[in-house]
Amino acid sequence: MPITSQLRPDGIRVVTMDAPPVNALTVQGWYDVAAALDEAGGDLDTKVVVLRAEGRGFNAGVDIKEMQHTTGFTALIGANKGCFAAFKAVYECAVPVVAAVNGFCLGGGVGLVGNADCVVASDDAYFGVPEVNQGALGAATHMARLVPQHMMRTLYFTARTITATELVQFGSVLEVVPRDRLDDAALQVAGEIAAKDTRVIRAAKEALNGIDPIDVNKSYRFEQGFTFELNLEGVSDELRDDFAGTDKAKGKQ
Question: Would I find Cell membrane among this entry's keywords (predicted)?
Protein backbone atom coordinates (compact mmCIF):
# COMPACT_ATOMS: atom_id res chain seq x y z
CA MET A 1 0.00 0.00 0.00
CA PRO A 2 1.26 3.54 -0.78
CA ILE A 3 0.40 4.79 2.72
CA THR A 4 1.15 2.76 5.84
CA SER A 5 0.77 3.56 9.52
CA GLN A 6 2.52 1.86 12.43
CA LEU A 7 2.18 2.63 16.13
CA ARG A 8 5.34 2.03 18.14
CA PRO A 9 5.30 0.98 21.82
CA ASP A 10 6.52 4.45 22.83
CA GLY A 11 3.41 6.14 21.38
CA ILE A 12 5.11 7.40 18.21
CA ARG A 13 3.02 6.62 15.13
CA VAL A 14 5.02 6.43 11.91
CA VAL A 15 3.08 7.22 8.74
CA THR A 16 5.01 6.35 5.57
CA MET A 17 4.37 7.33 1.96
CA ASP A 18 5.70 4.82 -0.55
CA ALA A 19 4.37 5.39 -4.07
CA PRO A 20 7.17 4.76 -6.61
CA PRO A 21 8.75 6.19 -8.58
CA VAL A 22 8.54 9.70 -7.07
CA ASN A 23 5.76 9.65 -4.45
CA ALA A 24 3.44 11.66 -6.68
CA LEU A 25 0.15 10.71 -5.07
CA THR A 26 -3.04 9.74 -6.85
CA VAL A 27 -6.39 11.12 -5.71
CA GLN A 28 -6.86 8.05 -3.51
CA GLY A 29 -3.33 8.47 -2.14
CA TRP A 30 -4.11 11.93 -0.79
CA TYR A 31 -7.27 10.66 0.86
CA ASP A 32 -5.25 7.79 2.35
CA VAL A 33 -2.81 10.27 3.90
CA ALA A 34 -5.76 12.16 5.38
CA ALA A 35 -7.26 8.96 6.76
CA ALA A 36 -3.96 7.92 8.36
CA LEU A 37 -3.59 11.27 10.12
CA ASP A 38 -7.22 11.34 11.22
CA GLU A 39 -6.83 7.84 12.63
CA ALA A 40 -3.67 8.86 14.45
CA GLY A 41 -5.32 11.84 16.10
CA GLY A 42 -8.32 9.78 17.16
CA ASP A 43 -6.19 7.09 18.77
CA LEU A 44 -5.43 8.08 22.37
CA ASP A 45 -2.42 5.75 22.37
CA THR A 46 -0.80 7.92 19.71
CA LYS A 47 1.28 10.68 21.27
CA VAL A 48 3.00 12.10 18.18
CA VAL A 49 3.19 11.33 14.45
CA VAL A 50 6.25 11.07 12.24
CA LEU A 51 5.34 11.61 8.58
CA ARG A 52 8.04 10.18 6.32
CA ALA A 53 8.60 8.64 2.91
CA GLU A 54 10.45 5.85 1.21
CA GLY A 55 12.26 6.23 -2.08
CA ARG A 56 14.00 9.04 -3.93
CA GLY A 57 12.09 11.91 -2.38
CA PHE A 58 9.47 12.88 0.16
CA ASN A 59 6.69 13.88 -2.21
CA ALA A 60 6.41 15.13 -5.80
CA GLY A 61 2.86 16.42 -5.43
CA VAL A 62 -0.14 15.38 -7.50
CA ASP A 63 0.05 12.53 -10.01
CA ILE A 64 -0.18 14.62 -13.19
CA LYS A 65 -0.43 11.59 -15.45
CA GLU A 66 -3.51 10.36 -13.60
CA MET A 67 -5.10 13.73 -14.18
CA GLN A 68 -4.23 13.81 -17.88
CA HIS A 69 -5.56 10.31 -18.50
CA THR A 70 -8.95 11.08 -16.94
CA THR A 71 -11.66 12.73 -19.00
CA GLY A 72 -13.44 15.80 -17.75
CA PHE A 73 -12.62 17.46 -14.45
CA THR A 74 -13.17 14.46 -12.17
CA ALA A 75 -9.48 13.90 -11.41
CA LEU A 76 -8.84 17.64 -10.99
CA ILE A 77 -11.64 18.01 -8.47
CA GLY A 78 -10.54 14.81 -6.75
CA ALA A 79 -6.94 15.96 -6.49
CA ASN A 80 -7.97 19.36 -5.13
CA LYS A 81 -10.28 17.85 -2.55
CA GLY A 82 -7.79 15.11 -1.69
CA CYS A 83 -4.95 17.58 -1.15
CA PHE A 84 -7.22 19.81 0.92
CA ALA A 85 -8.17 16.83 3.08
CA ALA A 86 -4.57 15.69 3.54
CA PHE A 87 -3.19 19.14 4.40
CA LYS A 88 -6.10 19.76 6.76
CA ALA A 89 -5.57 16.39 8.46
CA VAL A 90 -1.91 17.19 9.14
CA TYR A 91 -2.74 20.61 10.54
CA GLU A 92 -5.70 19.46 12.60
CA CYS A 93 -4.20 16.18 13.80
CA ALA A 94 -4.83 16.13 17.55
CA VAL A 95 -1.16 15.38 18.23
CA PRO A 96 1.98 17.06 16.84
CA VAL A 97 3.22 15.94 13.43
CA VAL A 98 6.96 15.73 12.76
CA ALA A 99 7.81 15.72 9.05
CA ALA A 100 10.96 13.83 8.06
CA VAL A 101 11.85 15.11 4.59
CA ASN A 102 14.23 13.39 2.22
CA GLY A 103 15.13 14.45 -1.31
CA PHE A 104 12.54 16.47 -3.19
CA CYS A 105 9.50 18.01 -1.51
CA LEU A 106 7.41 19.67 -4.20
CA GLY A 107 3.89 21.03 -4.59
CA GLY A 108 1.64 18.94 -2.40
CA GLY A 109 4.67 17.85 -0.41
CA VAL A 110 5.11 21.46 0.70
CA GLY A 111 1.44 21.47 1.68
CA LEU A 112 2.04 18.54 4.02
CA VAL A 113 5.27 19.88 5.47
CA GLY A 114 4.09 23.46 5.79
CA ASN A 115 1.20 22.27 7.97
CA ALA A 116 3.40 20.02 10.11
CA ASP A 117 4.48 21.07 13.60
CA CYS A 118 8.17 20.26 13.29
CA VAL A 119 10.41 19.56 10.29
CA VAL A 120 13.68 17.66 10.11
CA ALA A 121 15.37 17.01 6.78
CA SER A 122 18.18 15.16 5.13
CA ASP A 123 21.08 17.04 3.60
CA ASP A 124 19.78 16.32 0.09
CA ALA A 125 16.31 17.73 0.76
CA TYR A 126 14.90 20.66 -1.19
CA PHE A 127 11.50 22.33 -1.38
CA GLY A 128 9.54 24.03 -4.13
CA VAL A 129 6.12 24.99 -5.46
CA PRO A 130 6.36 24.55 -9.26
CA GLU A 131 2.61 24.84 -9.75
CA VAL A 132 2.89 27.75 -12.19
CA ASN A 133 4.70 25.43 -14.60
CA GLN A 134 1.63 23.18 -14.72
CA GLY A 135 -0.98 25.92 -14.85
CA ALA A 136 -2.07 25.50 -11.25
CA LEU A 137 -1.93 27.52 -8.06
CA GLY A 138 -1.67 26.26 -4.50
CA ALA A 139 0.58 25.62 -1.49
CA ALA A 140 1.68 29.24 -1.29
CA THR A 141 -0.23 29.20 1.99
CA HIS A 142 2.08 26.47 3.21
CA MET A 143 5.33 27.74 1.69
CA ALA A 144 4.63 31.01 3.53
CA ARG A 145 4.93 29.01 6.76
CA LEU A 146 8.45 27.96 5.76
CA VAL A 147 9.94 31.19 4.39
CA PRO A 148 9.32 34.96 4.66
CA GLN A 149 6.82 36.60 2.31
CA HIS A 150 9.20 37.99 -0.29
CA MET A 151 11.10 34.73 -0.51
CA MET A 152 7.81 32.85 -0.87
CA ARG A 153 6.74 35.11 -3.74
CA THR A 154 10.07 34.71 -5.51
CA LEU A 155 9.96 30.93 -5.19
CA TYR A 156 6.34 30.89 -6.34
CA PHE A 157 6.71 33.08 -9.41
CA THR A 158 9.99 31.51 -10.57
CA ALA A 159 9.28 27.87 -9.57
CA ARG A 160 12.74 27.83 -7.98
CA THR A 161 13.56 25.46 -5.14
CA ILE A 162 15.18 26.09 -1.77
CA THR A 163 17.33 23.66 0.20
CA ALA A 164 16.67 22.36 3.68
CA THR A 165 19.96 23.89 4.80
CA GLU A 166 18.73 27.31 3.69
CA LEU A 167 15.46 26.81 5.57
CA VAL A 168 17.31 26.27 8.83
CA GLN A 169 18.17 29.98 8.88
CA PHE A 170 14.45 30.80 8.85
CA GLY A 171 13.77 28.41 11.72
CA SER A 172 11.27 26.36 9.71
CA VAL A 173 13.55 23.30 9.56
CA LEU A 174 14.81 22.18 12.94
CA GLU A 175 17.91 20.38 11.71
CA VAL A 176 19.55 18.89 8.65
CA VAL A 177 21.25 15.51 8.94
CA PRO A 178 22.80 12.93 6.61
CA ARG A 179 20.13 10.91 4.88
CA ASP A 180 20.96 7.71 6.74
CA ARG A 181 20.30 9.53 10.03
CA LEU A 182 17.00 11.15 9.05
CA ASP A 183 14.69 8.62 10.68
CA ASP A 184 16.72 8.68 13.88
CA ALA A 185 16.60 12.49 13.98
CA ALA A 186 12.83 12.51 13.49
CA LEU A 187 12.32 9.84 16.13
CA GLN A 188 14.56 11.78 18.52
CA VAL A 189 12.42 14.91 18.51
CA ALA A 190 9.23 12.82 18.38
CA GLY A 191 10.47 10.93 21.43
CA GLU A 192 10.93 14.16 23.34
CA ILE A 193 7.31 15.06 22.60
CA ALA A 194 6.03 11.56 23.39
CA ALA A 195 7.71 11.73 26.80
CA LYS A 196 5.38 14.58 27.84
CA ASP A 197 1.91 14.09 29.25
CA THR A 198 -0.16 13.50 26.12
CA ARG A 199 -3.15 15.30 27.63
CA VAL A 200 -1.11 18.48 27.87
CA ILE A 201 0.39 18.05 24.39
CA ARG A 202 -3.03 17.53 22.81
CA ALA A 203 -4.32 20.65 24.55
CA ALA A 204 -1.23 22.55 23.42
CA LYS A 205 -1.73 21.52 19.78
CA GLU A 206 -5.31 22.77 19.84
CA ALA A 207 -4.28 25.98 21.57
CA LEU A 208 -1.49 26.77 19.10
CA ASN A 209 -3.81 26.19 16.15
CA GLY A 210 -6.33 28.48 17.79
CA ILE A 211 -3.89 31.41 17.93
CA ASP A 212 -2.53 30.98 14.40
CA PRO A 213 -2.79 34.33 12.55
CA ILE A 214 -3.75 32.63 9.26
CA ASP A 215 -6.61 30.20 8.70
CA VAL A 216 -4.64 27.76 6.54
CA ASN A 217 -7.72 25.86 5.41
CA LYS A 218 -9.56 28.90 4.05
CA SER A 219 -6.36 30.38 2.63
CA TYR A 220 -5.54 27.24 0.65
CA ARG A 221 -9.14 26.88 -0.53
CA PHE A 222 -8.98 30.44 -1.87
CA GLU A 223 -5.85 29.54 -3.87
CA GLN A 224 -7.59 26.51 -5.33
CA GLY A 225 -10.29 28.70 -6.84
CA PHE A 226 -7.75 30.19 -9.26
CA THR A 227 -6.64 26.70 -10.25
CA PHE A 228 -10.22 25.94 -11.27
CA GLU A 229 -10.36 29.15 -13.33
CA LEU A 230 -7.15 28.26 -15.18
CA ASN A 231 -8.52 24.80 -15.91
CA LEU A 232 -11.79 26.15 -17.27
CA GLU A 233 -9.79 28.42 -19.58
CA GLY A 234 -7.83 25.41 -20.87
CA VAL A 235 -4.47 26.81 -19.76
CA SER A 236 -3.76 24.13 -17.18
CA ASP A 237 -4.59 21.24 -19.51
CA GLU A 238 -2.18 22.57 -22.14
CA LEU A 239 0.69 22.96 -19.66
CA ARG A 240 0.05 19.57 -18.04
CA ASP A 241 0.14 17.94 -21.48
CA ASP A 242 3.55 19.46 -22.06
CA PHE A 243 4.75 18.30 -18.66
CA ALA A 244 3.38 14.78 -18.94
CA GLY A 245 4.53 14.31 -22.55
CA THR A 246 1.15 13.02 -23.67
CA ASP A 247 0.29 12.16 -27.25
CA LYS A 248 -1.75 15.36 -27.46
CA ALA A 249 1.30 17.42 -26.57
CA LYS A 250 3.50 15.50 -29.01
CA GLY A 251 1.03 16.27 -31.77
CA LYS A 252 1.63 19.99 -31.29
CA GLN A 253 5.39 19.69 -31.86
Answer: no
